[in-house]
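Exercise 7. Given the components listed, write out the predicted structure of the assembled complex. Treat all entries as one system.
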Amino acid sequence: MANYLAQFQAIKNTSDRLVVAVEDVSDLWPSVKEGLEKRLPLKKASLNNKTRNPVYVENLQAEFILTTDSRLRSRFPQEQYLFWFREPYATIVLVSCEDLDEFKTILKPRLKLIVQNEEREWFIVFVSKAHPNNDQATKNAKKVYARLEVDFNTRKRERCCKLDLNGVDASFWEDFDFKIVESIRNTLDRRAQFYEEEIRKMSEQRLMPVWNFCNFFILKESLAFMFEMAHLHEDSLREYDELELCYIETVSTPGKQRDFGGLEHGDDQAALLKPGFKPLSQIVQDDSFREFEFRQYLFARQVKLLFRLGRPLEVVMRGYSFIISFSKTLALHENTLPFCLREVWVISACLAIISSTSSTYDGLAAPDNEKEFYRLHGDLYSLCRIKFMRLAYLIGYGVEIEKSPVNSASLSMLPWPKPSIWPAVPEDASAKVLAKEKLILQANPRMKHFNIQRKQLPLEPSSLLREANRRRASLSVGNLSELIDYRQIDGSGIDGHQKFSPSTTNSMSRTYSGPNLESSLSLDRPMRISEVHVAAEHALENTVTDPDLLKSLSSLEEFEQKYMELTKGAADNYHHSWWKRHGVALDGEIAALCFKHGNYDLAAKSYEKVCALYAGEGWQDLLAEVLPNLAECQKILNDQAGYLSSCVRLLSLEDGLFLAKERQAFQLEVVRLAHSEMKHPVPLDVSSLITFSGNPGPPLQLCDGDPGTLPVTVWSGFPDDITLESLSLTLTNTLNTDEGVKTIKSSDAHILKPGRNVIKLDVPPQKPGSYVLGVLTGQIGNLRFRSHNFSKGGPQDNDDFMSYEKPTRPVLKVLKPRTLVDISAAVSSALLMNELQWLGLIVKPIDYSLKGSLLSIDTGPGLMIDESHTIDINEYAKTMEDKVHAHDSNTITENNTHPLEPKQLYIENGKIALPDWASDTSTTLWFPVHAIDDRMARAASADSPHRQNMVDGMRTIALKLEFGAFRNQIFERTIAVHFTDPFYVTTRVANKCNDGTLLLQATIHSQVKATLCLYDAWLDLQAGFVHVRKENGRPVSSFFPLVISPSSTAGILFSICIDNMAIAADQNEVVQAESILNVMYGISGDRSNGAHSPTSLKLGSSDKLFFKVAIALQRPILDPCIAVGFVPFSSNCLRVGQLINMKWRVERLKDLEASPSSSCKDEVLYEVDANPEIWMIAGRTMGHALLSNARGSRTEITVTCMPLVSGHVRPPQLGLPAMDDANISCNPPGPHLVCVLPPTLSSSYCIPA
Amino acid sequence: MIACVAVVGHQNNPLYLQSFTGADDALKLHHIVHCSLDVIDERVNNPKRSVITLNESYLGLLYPTESYKVYGYLSNTKVKFLVVTTDLDVKDTDIRSFFRRFHAAYVDAVSNPFHVPGKKIISRIFAVRVSGIVKAFAPGTYG
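Answer.
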C-alpha cells in the first residue's frame, strides 16, 4: 500500500473539495448547469462530526462532476476503495420525460439500474421542460413526476424533486440544497465509519510485524483529509494529533535503526509551515517515514488547520513546544547531522513561526490571550537569539558579546554542539585564521567603569577550545596537556568552566592561543582557538542554506544588527506580555549594544529601566552589575544629576558587592562632582546612603521653652570620611500636625566617618509635643542631599509591612508648661518688726535643675535687706531634720552640712547666684531683712480692744528666679511676709480708789511664736498723771524676768494718780500727750518657726530688746456744768403708730461764767438724733431752748415722735452740740433701748382719743 | 543537579539565594531566579491559566528551557521558593518533597527572634541546613 503514497499525495494535491456526481440521463446538464453551480458553495450545511454531533458548516465547497467525466471514470476499483474520500459524496440524477409510457418502459429500468448501487447517496431531479402555457405538456410532466415519486420515494426518504426550467420555484432550491447536504452527510458518516473501522483494525496490529506505518498513515490522513474537505477542521486536527502521537510512539520503539533525515540540502531551514516541502514518497523509510521530515510535515498540517480555525495563538503555543521538543530530538541525532544544524534549524523555525503569526494576530482576542501570545513570541525570539549567539560565539564573535547575566544564563548552561567529529580547518585558511586571531587580540574587553574588577561571567558551558579538540578524531584526551601554551590573553573572554559537563573533570580556565604557532595544521597538533573559529565558520557555511542567516554571520556588523533585531523583538514582545522582567532584562542587553555603538542616550534610557526594576525589588547583586554602566552613560552624556545619583546609589548598595577600593572611587566621584562647577545645586536623595535616627533610649525631654541639644545618630554609607558643609534635620510634631515641620540646623561642617556618627544639634525652644525626626538635609559642595528614612537597615524603598507598621520613635519630647520651681516663705508666722530678722525662702526645684540660676530679690516698701550680712543657705530637708533635732534637744543648732557646700552667699545688686550643689535639691535661703514701721505701737483699751491691723505688718518681697540652661526660664513670685510687734498691750483701769489712785492694768499679749522674756517695764506717764508715791513707774522688780509663752498674756499693774497740780503748772509747756510703756524684753525663738532674736545678735543670747507702747490715759470728767435727764414716758408702753412725747430735762449745774468753754448766752442748742426708719419726728429736731445762765436753772425739751417699728429700738437721743461732752453729766441722756409694742388690733389705725 | 535555591519575599525581593554550581557565576542564577518571578506572577495573577490550582503551594515547573528547569513553590505568606536544576528529568514528587523540607527550614529560620522579617536570611544554620537538603536531593530519594 505504501506504493500508493505518491498517488495519494497527488490526489490530495488535486482534490480539495467535495465532489457531487451528476448522472445526466436525459442530456439536461448544459441547461441546468448554470443554475446548479450557482448554489455552490453551499451556504449552510449541517454535517456530523466524528462523534456524530451536528456541526454547521458555512460555505461548504463542492464541485459538480458528470459521471461521464474522465476524473470519475478512469479509476481502478481498488483505488476507489483506497482513496474513497475523493469519490462523489452525492449523485444527482437528472431526468426529464413527458410521456408516461416512455418513463415506464425506458426511463424507469434505467434509473433503477443507476440507483441500485447501495453505497451511493442519490436523488433524482426531474426537469420539466414544459412551458407553463402549454397545459398538456405541463399535465404530462406532472403525471410522469407523480409516477416517479411513487416509484423512487420511500416512506423514510424523499429522493425526488422537480425543477421547472420555465419558471423555477424558490422552494425547489431549498429542497435541492437540503437533499445535497443530506446526501453528503450520509456519505460522510458512512465513510468516516468505514475509515475508523479500518484504522481500528490496523491499530490492533500495531505490535505485529506486519504493521506498516505508511498504511496507517494513508488511512488516517485520508480520514483527516476528508474532514478537512468537509470543513470539519477540528476533527481533521484531531486526526493529525493522533497521527503524531502514534508516530512518535512508533519512532521511539526500540528496534530498527532508522534514518533520521535532515542531511539534505536545505534541511537546515525548518519546514514548519510548508507541508509540501518534500513529497512524502521521498521520505519513506522502510515502512515508515524519516522523522526529521515527517514530524515537520505533521506539524505543518496542524498549523494549516489551526490557521483555518483562526487560532494563531495555538499555532505559537504548539510551535514553541514543538521547537523545544524537536530541538531535543535533534540533539539526540546530532552526531549524524551536519555541524550546528540543530541551532540553525531552531533559528529558522522560530523566525518562521514568528513571521507567520505576527501578521495574523489581530489583537481582538481577550487581553489574557494577547499577553500570552506576546509572551510566546518573546520566548521564540529569545530562543532564536540564544541559538544565534551560540553560532556567533562558535565563529569567534564571542568576544564581542556582552557577558551579562542574561547571556550567561542562557549560554553557559547550554551544551556545545556535539558533532561526531569537530570540523577541521579547511585548506588555505591561514588568512582567515590570522584575521580571527586579530579579532580576538583587538577585541580588548571593555574595562568596567570605575575600574571595577569583576570576573566575567562565562558564555560557554566549558572551554570551547578543549571541547573542539576533544571531539577531533585525531586527538585523544591524553595529549591535551600538550595544548597548554601559557601565553594567555588577558580577558579574552573565553574563560571557561566545566560545571555542567560531567565528562570533563579538570578545569581549564584560560584560553590558549598563540599567534606565533605555525598556521599550517597537522592532524596531530591541537587546534588553536582561532582555528576552531575558522573551522566552525567553514562548517557553518556548509550547513546554512539561508542566505539571510549566512549574511548575518558574515561580519561582526551584520551579526550585531541581527542580534539587536532579535533582542529587540524579544524585549518588545515580553513588554507586551506578563513577563516584564524578561523584557527589562533584555533591555539591558539592548543598552549594552547601544553603548558599544556610542548611542549613549538610548543606552542610558534602557539602563535606567533595568536599574529601576532591580532596585525596586531589591536585587542588589544584579543592580550592581548594571548600575556602573548607567553611571558611565550618564557621565558621558554629562548628566551630572543622574551621574551623581548613580554614584550615590552605587555607594548605597550592600557591602560586599563592591571592593573597598571601588567604593572609594565612587565616593571620589561624588565629591569631585559636588565640588565641581555645577551650574545649579543638585538635589539628591541619599536615603539609602546616609541614614539617621535618634539615639537609642528614651527621647530627649525638654521643658517648655527650653532649648536643648539633640544627639542624632547618623550612619554614613560612604567608605571614607566625608565632609558635610551643613546639616539640618526636620522635626515633626506628632501631636499637632498643623504646625508643620521645624527645621533644626547645624551649620558647622561635619565630617562623617564611615558607619555610626553622633551629631549634636541645637534645638531652639519648641512648642510642647512629641517630635519625630523628619528629613535630613545637607550639603556636600553643590550637592544638596536629602535623606528620609528613620532607621538603618533594610532594602531601600522598602515598604515592607513589618517595618512601616513600626511606629517612628519620638526623639524629643517637649513637655507641657508646668511649674518647674516653687519658692515659698519658709515661715508663716510673723517676724519681729523693726528688728533684723532672718527671712527664710524655700527654693524647691520640681524635677528641674536650677544650675546657674540667679535669684533677684526686690523688697517692697517698708522692708529692706541688710546687705552687710551674708545669706545662709541650707538644704531644706536638713532644715527640717534640724528642726526635729532642735525640738528633741531643745536647743537651736545648725548641723554641719557637707563641707563642700557653700553655705554663705552674698547678695549683689539684689541678686543671688544659687550654688551648683543646690541645683537639684530644695534649699532654704535665709537672708536678713529689716521691716520698718515708724508708727509707735499703741495700747488699746481693754473695753474696746483694737487689734493691730494685719495689713500694717505685711511686707512684700518680689522674687524673680532666672534659671534653665540659658537662664531662659523665669519664675516670678511676690511673697508676703508678716511682721509684727512682739506683743500688744491693752490697758484698763482696774480700780478707782477713793483717794484718786487709779490702778492701771497693762495686759501684754504675745504676738510671736517665740518665748518672750520681759526683763523690765516702766511707764512714762503723760502730763496730768503721776505715779503714786512718785516712784519711777516700775512694778515690783522681783516681778521680772517675766516669761511669756507664745500666744499667752501677762499683766502688769501700775498705780497712778491724777496730778492736779500739774495742770496749771505745765500749761504752757509742751506736755507729753501720751504715756509710754517701756518694755525691756528678750526673745528666744527659732527662725524656722517665726520671730527670733535679731540677726545682729547671736542666737540664743540674752541681749535685751526694747519696745515702747503708747498708752492714752484720759482724765476723768470732773466739772459737769449741765445735766441732762430723760423724763420717763407718760405711758407704760409704746406702741407703733402711737404719738408720744419725749422729754428731756436740762439743768444748769454751774454758773455759766465759771465755765470758760461756754460761749453761749441764756439759751442752749439742742439736737435730736433719731433713726428716721424707726422714728417719725413731729416738729423740729434742732433748736435753741431757753436756759438762763444761773446755776440751777432748768428747762425741758419735748419732742413729739411716733415709733414706726415694734421691738427694742434705740430711742431718739438728745444732743447738745454746743457743749463739750466733758461738761455734760449723765451722758448718754436716756435709756439705750425702749420697747415698742406692735399696734393694737384694729380695723383702722384711728386711735380713739 | 540543583544549581541554585532561592527564597524570594512577598515583594519579590531576594531573601536568600545560594548557588551550588561551585563557580563564581551566581549572578546568572540571580537573573534566572529573578526572571522566574515573571512566571510566578503570571500564575498567581491568572489562576485560570495555571495548570496547578493555587490551593497548593507547589507551583510546579515554571520555566522549561533547553538547559535548565526552574521549579517554584509559594507559601501562604507569598514567600516564593525556587529551585533551578540542570537535571532535565526530575520527578514531581521529588521536587515537592524537596520544597516541603526547604519550606520547613525557612520557617525555622524566620522564627528566630533575631531575624527581621522581610530582610535577607543570614543565618548560617539555615545555609547549612539548605545545603544538606540540596545534597540529599537526588531523584527518587524522596517518596
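Discussion: The two ends of chain A are 174 Å apart (CA to CA). Chain A has a mean pLDDT of 79.
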